[in-house]
Amino acid sequence: xxxxxxxxxxxxxxxxxxxxxxxxxxxxxxxxxxxxxxxxxxxxxxxxxxxxxxxxxxxxxxxxxxxxxxxxxxxxxxxxxxxxxxxxxxxxxxxxxxxxxxxxxxxxxxxxxxxxxxxxxxxxxxxxxxxxxxxxxxxxxxxxxxxxxxxxxxxxxxxxxxxxxxxxxxxxxxxxxxxxxxxxxxxxxxxxxxxxxxxxxxxxxxxxxxxxxxxxxxxxxxxxxxxxxxxxxxxxxxxxxxxxxxxxxxxxxxxxxxxxxxxxxxxxxxxxxxxxxxxxxxxxxxxxxxxxxxxxxxxxxxxxxxxxxxxxxxxxxxxxxxxxxxxxxxxxx
Length: 333
Description:
Elements: E1 7-16, E2 22-31, E3 36-41, H1 47-55, E4 62-67, E5 70-71, E6 86-90, H2 102-107, H3 115-128, H4 144-156, E7 162-166, H5 174-191, E8 194-198, H6 202-208, E9 211-216, E10 219-224, H7 226-231, H8 236-242, E11 246-249, H9 250-255, E12 266-269, E13 274-277, E14 284-291, E15 296-302, E16 305-311, E17 322-327, E18 331-332
Parallel strand pairs: 3-8, 3-9, 6-7, 7-8
Antiparallel strand pairs: 1-2, 1-4, 4-5, 9-10, 11-12, 12-18, 13-17, 14-15, 14-17, 15-16
């Protein structure tokens, strides 16, 4: 059974002074065991600092972090920073031996006390990450996505209890990115590994996370189930992070047929919440069409108000065409 206080931060702060104060401010939360927890926020929101505090690469100015009831020590008290039961993977792969084979890069982390067990462990990890065909290739000859797989394999070969990922897919091609994400989900399912990841990509976060933490200006703004937070975010900041939404003030909302509640000032509308048609009297003009593969983002305009609308009717509409809109759902803030 998962420990409810598996990894716990209590009132931790880490402040970087300057023109704009950054870092982490008086933050408390619990990471669930055996789950993927994703941290998202704007640049400078403190998400990477938070990850380094959890790992023990940084000492908090205030507060304390516990892992399974014991304090996580930072570099002031620990000679080699980083908790022994955790591993971190970043977007950089500088610690790889470029001129050694993939097999050797991974195997070097396992002692030679039992050669057969060592070979079995490396083979298992290679299979788990769909890398068996790369075993005898030099790291130097690999693509960025393949190198990232090697970094992941090195991180999990020693069976850590927590894997921390800091923007790990930033420099990975889209085709490799989705495969890597699925590999990580499979590893969590098969091994019970706990993953904490930092990302700025909402599609990455929403497809991987079991739990979502939203950070703003060094503080946790809200947290919870990604599906619920996407559908009903408590804050406009969260909605703007998770979706390329249309944000309108009261006056512009009226042009869309939306009357806000008395105390509300802003409306957020996701592009997929708007239907476009040529029925009735069309009032909106298509200003541009952005091809996205299996759908189009249609930019429409009326009286200075511009909206992004998602359409799966490929090539049905044209730039300059007049259309009608129907807003099926919106959020008020």
